[in-house]
Amino acid sequence: MNNKVLETKKLTKYFYDPLKFQVLKEIDMSINHGEFVSIVGKSGCGKSTLLYLLSTMDTDYEGELLIHDEVVTGKPDKELALIRNEKIGFVFQFHYLLSEYNVLKNVMLPGMKLAKLSEKEIEHNAMEHLKTLDMQEQALKMPNQLSGGQKQRVAIARALINNPLVIMGDEPTGNLDKKNSDLVFDIFKKLTIEKQQTLLIVTHDTDFAQRTNRIITMEDGKIVS
């Protein structure tokens, strides 16, 4: 087993609405275990589309995607849903916490869905992640009682609950002020150093990107550096 968490071979994507348009052009890239990588580029360059393909949520592409040395291209939806839940944690620009559940329950949800551990164990792990993010005091609060920065920390705890191979972020600091953006960056950095967590983050924030281990720059659907 090599060190690659993600690998693409000639990944190509077209949009067909209203006309055929090539949004990704033969992307070859790989992400290694424990790397903290950012993807940058102007709006419309294809970075969010690429992340969507890497996350297996969009399967309409040409080329090949490997997760942990396993080709996932062409696998049925049910199998991809399991791979996603087990191996990929997501943090988006908007936290997508469910308003009817408290913080603890929100963090537990992907673990309950995966159902590999008992509810008690999932709850214990959820509390541990909340402690890591200094959010244990807020565990029984509802999402509407939290600040924007706190909500994003809960979203990170939720992304960690199934001990994913990689955490993918789409503009995770896009909705936050400077102070909270720095806080989220520090959390990510700590995860890579202490837990060897692999992170792949699409961002417009150049300051954020420059502090990651590696920057992938995209332009017109291609990786330029």
Question: How would you portray this structure in words?
Answer:
By secondary structure, this protein is an alpha/beta fold. Helix content is 36%, strand content 27%. The chain has helices spanning 47-54, 77-87, 103-114, 119-132, 148-160, 178-195, 206-210, and strands at residues 4-15, 21-32, 36-40, 62-67, 70-71, 88-92, 166-170, 198-202, 214-219, 222-223. The strands form two sheets. A six-stranded mixed beta sheet has the order 6-7-8-3-9-10. A four-stranded antiparallel beta sheet has the order 2-1-4-5, with helices on one face. It is globular.
Q: Main β-sheet: number of strands, strand sense, barrel status?
A: 6 strands, mixed
Give the SSE order as H and E letters.
EEEHEEHEHHHEHEHEE
**Quick one: overall form?**
globular
Q: How far apart lie the N and C ends?
A: 27 Å
Overall mean pLDDT: 89
Uncertain stretches: none
Give the strand tally.
Answer: 10
Hey, roughly how much beta strand do the residues contain?
25-35%
The portion of residues assigned to helices is 25-40%
* Strand numbers in spatial order across the main sheet: 6-7-8-3-9-10
Number of H/I helices? 7
Rg over CA atoms, rounded to whole Å, is 17 Å
Structural category is: alpha/beta
